[in-house]
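Bump. Still looking for Nucleoid-associated protein KDK95_07295 structure tokens.
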Amino acid sequence: MGSLIQQAQQMQEQLAAAQQELAEVTVTGTAGGGLVEATVSGLGELSGLKISPEAADPQDTETLADLVVAAIRDANAQAEALQQDKLGPLAALGQGGGFGGGLPGGGTGGATFPLGF
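Sorry for the wait, here they are.
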């Protein structure tokens, strides 16, 4: 039993270290051929948004909004791939179940349950 607890503690420490590393990495997503760029941390937290002047048409703000959303989604998809690569089997622990709690901004947006089930 003590060995199992020790393994769980090691996994939790590994998860915390990996999350810290992910928090320090940034990825950039783009849309509209680079007209809009969104930068997020490896955890998926938005840290920057760059909009080219050519994308800002006052007569068509809906397209600009779509480009912003697409760039953020692209960046978050890259962050999620980075999480999967970095965390490997520990990724499941960081998505609500297990010891690590939730990864901020991570996961696939699925349901969360009280008590982490």
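Residues 61-87 form the longest helix (27 residues).

Edit: fixed formatting.
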